Description:
Structural class: alpha/beta
Helix content: 25-40%
CATH architecture: 3-Layer(aba) Sandwich
Number of domains: 1
Strand content: 15-25%
CATH topology: Rossmann fold
CATH superfamily: PAC-like subunit
Low-confidence stretches: none
CATH class: Alpha Beta
Largest sheet: 7 strands, mixed
Distance between the termini: 53 Å
Number of strands: 11
Order of helices and strands: EHEEEEEHEHEHEEHEHH
Strand order of the largest sheet: 2-5-6-1-7-11-8
Amino acid sequence: LNTSLSTPIFRPAVSVGNVGQLAMDLIISTLNMSKIGYFYTDCLVPMVGNNPYATTEGNSTELSINAEVYSLPSRELVALQLRSIFIKYKSKPFCEKLLSWVKSSGCARVIVLSSSHSYQRNDLQLRSTPFRYLLTPSTQKSVQNKIKSLNWEEMEKSRCIPEIDDSEFCIRIPGGGITKTLYDESCSKEIQMAVLLKFVSEGDNIPDALGLVEYLNEWLQILKPLSDDPTVSASRWKIPSSWRLLFGSGLPPALF
C-alpha cells in the first residue's frame, strides 16, 4: 500500500447496530472506491460472499471476504471494510496488527466510525446531540481548530464503574466493540486517530449510518454540500446493491 502523508484510512468498528460498517458501505459505494487488496488476519471469523457493491451482472459474482482494502487515489483516501465479528480473545491482537500496518504504510491518520448504546447515555448526553468525537493527543494539534469550529461535542468521561459512586472517571464506549482499545493503543503509540460515533439502538440502522457519514462529511467534505437541508444531503449517498437483502429476503409465498 503506497500512501502519502496526507492519506487518511477510514475504518469501522464492529459495534452496536453495525453502524460503522454501514457507513463505510456508503462511503465506498458513493465514491466508487476500487478494491486494492485484503487485510489478512486470523482474528476475524472467516466469511466469503458476493460483491457487495455490484453495479452490473458481470461484476456481481466477484467474491468479497471479511477484511478488504479500498482506495480512491484521486482523493488520497483509503478504506478498510470489516464484514465479520472477532474471534474470542483476538480483538486486541487485531488492534496491534492494524496499528502496526498503519504505521508502516505511512498514512496521515486513522478515522474510526463507530457507535455506542443509546440506553447507556447519561443525563447530559440525553439532552444533546447523539454524535460524539474523540481525538488522540497527536491528532489534536492538527485538527482541533477545525473540529472546534464545527461545535462538535467530545465524548465525555464517565465513571469507570458506573455502579460505584466514588469510581474514577474515564472514557467509556459501551457497545463500541474495539473502539476504546484502538483509541487507547493509538494514544500510547502516538498514532493520529479520530473516532466519530453515534449513540444508537439495534434495529433499522440505515438512518444512523446516513447520519454518521453526514457527520464525517461536515469535517472532511467528502461530498460538497449542496444544501443546508440534511435530508437533501443524505440522499446523495449511494446505497450499495447488497442492502437490498439487509433484512433478509422476502417471505416465501409457500407460507400463505
